[in-house]
Amino acid sequence: MPKIQRLSVSLINKIAAGEVIERPASVVKELLENSIDAGARRIDVAVEKGGAELIRVSDDGCGIAPDDLPLAVASHATSKLKEADDLFRVGTLGFRGEALASIAEVSRFLLVSRAADQAEGAELEVVAGEPAPVVPRGCPVGTTIEVRNLFFNTPVRRKFLRTNQTELGHITETFTRVALASPGVHLTLRHNGRVVHDLPPCTAGVDRIARLFGEDLARQLIAVDSVDDPVRLWGYVAHPSESRANQRMQYLFLNGRPIRDRSLQHALSEAYRGLLLTGRYPIAFLSLEMPPELVDVNVHPTKLEVRFQDGGRIYSQLLATLRTRFLTSDLSTPLVASGQGTRAESPAEADQLAARAAESREELVRWAKDQVADWETPAAAPDQHPGLPHPSPALGYGQPSPAPIGAGLTMHRLDRNWQAPAHDSDEERERRPDRQVVGAAALYQSAGVTSGGEAPRTLEPRPAGAEPSLASLAADARRTVSAMQIHNRYLVAESDEGVVVIDQHALHERILYEQLNEQLAHGDLEAQQLLVPEPVDLSGPEAALVLENRELLARLGMRVEAFGGGTILVTSYPAMLGRVPPGEILRDLIEQLSVAGKTPHRPQVLDELLHTCACKAAVKAGDPLSADEIAALIDQRHRFRDTHHCPHGRPTELVFTRAELDKQFLRT
Ligand code: ADP
Ligand code: MG
Questions:
Q1: How far is residue 643's CA from residue 511's CA, in Å, rounded to a whole number?
Q2: Mean pLDDT across the chain
Q3: What is the Cα–Cα distance from 162 to 540, expressed in whole angstroms?
Q4: For a surface tag, which of 118, 238, 538, 617 has the fewest beta carbons within 10 Å of its beta carbon?
Q5: Which residue CA neighbors atom 25 of ligand 1 most closely?
Q6: Whole-structure pTM over 0.85, yes or no?
Q7: Nearest-CA neighbor of 637 among 535, 551, 520, 508?
Q8: d(CA 145, CA 71)
Q9: Residue 650 near residue 503 (C-beta atoms within 8 A)
Q10: Could you read off the pLDDT of 207-250 as tens digits, one per residue?
Q11: Does residue 62 line the site of ligand 1, with CB under 6 A?
């Protein structure tokens, strides 16, 4: 048997660091928590190269006395717990006393601090766990911690770091959580000197949400508040018209601590049952407040998970609170600024909000007009790929208008529900030229996209001569085939063998997929330029994922740019997807990208993305089709190699042979 030995302090700290410090974002989390615990009113975070190079957190909190500096970086030293019982009523974010020790073990660490009652500050440097003597240093009250070259002495860990963008994404997410939990603290985040977030202190949590995720989302929030003594649950949940394809926009806080809790997420989904489509998840910003002794926060090294004494009761409280709130809200229409009182507390405030919205809309219109004036040629002409069938000529909702810019240009605002913007007043609508709906969210130069509320899924009559190929192709098709649409979802046609029943969505999806594949083989896909780039608010990691896959997305015609924070600007998107809001496409593509895992095999991922685009662009079951559309669809069925299965492998058609029919009708 090998001899049992005590581990060295350095090894103990390295092991602890392994648990607590996984990546730069973990350092940011621990340092931010310390600053909040120190009562800081302002905290500045600066990182370089995704945090691998430098993480600096400065606060104006209570500071640390010079004599205490060595203790602050010693393991199991904390000012937050005094006796064992304190562990069961933790009121601070930290309490384990090992964060600074762990961080200092795996980096070049510098701690500069001045306590409020000291005339002078002091600094302490620690390199790979080896502290230098404390030296006096002039500095303002508060604490600054610099962490350089994280994991420089643990090469294995360092190798696990992902790209700077990805690490920044995680840091931004961590920062966001802390910022949501402490709206009263002024927080800033800089990356390589550039400001990512500057969040002034605010009293209402919703203002911070608006700052982080945009006014659009903030307007769709429903305030909730309930007390089941001694537990208070309060915060905001989003109107069901706002949802996500994953649970990342579910922010939960317990006594000011960001937490993760599967059971509460489940309760949230239950509350929205029937209000969201399957696969969509609610957005929520919810805080629980309860006496600390009712919850054990010491069950997870990074304190992200907690154990409630009575989890079942909290589950019920969440479910009941939301259900009751929904019952008393009119969920059939999206909220408006002056509506449900979520954003606007008073009529005066509502007016102000409406005025602000109108102002920014006008500004955008002015800007867009300038752009149009500068714009000489359409971004993408329909016959850019001669010799190739244009994506679904009869069903191409998104073909850019070949008409010269300025002549008959129609700008459409598409919102998620294909309705005119909810916040447009009648008066505002009247002031605008006929059929010109311009909103703050998106401006498109595109024909054939309806912005009216009714029957948006069918094609609109197009300007004469705009798309000559449409009519002629359909006419050709009609000469050779005919089919009938039933239940707005199946097409029934005669074939040589008998009768064929076609699933309209599956077939169209297959055809589009094949067309996309062909286009891709000839180069990148046709892109439709957006007049005004569309901002899409994403979580930090999502934004990072998008930027990492920028080139891949560009091949599909989707061009994106970083805008700061989690916001991504979509500057162009696949032309064939003209009727789908860019933000929605982007989110679906993100989903595919995150499913693809960490080391995606490019061709396969691209193929998945093509499937996604084809599925999005295809007519849906339930879409009524015109005779021409049916004819064109049937016609193209024969042009591609395998149209008998949709890209997901479902059959696109069923054949009932004449022999079979004869047999069924007892004719044989
Ligand atoms: P914990 O937060 O669990 O106590 P840490 O290792 O994170 O452990 O910090 C150790 C101690 O250093 C804290 O208990 C606190 O007294 C002191 N400290 C750390 N950061 C700060 C800060 N920003 N301002 C004031 N004191 C701090
Ligand atoms: Mg701490």
A1: 7
A2: 74
A3: 14
A4: 118
A5: 63
A6: no
A7: 508
A8: 15
A9: yes
A10: 999 999 988 899 999 999 999 989 999 999 999 888 888 899 99
A11: yes
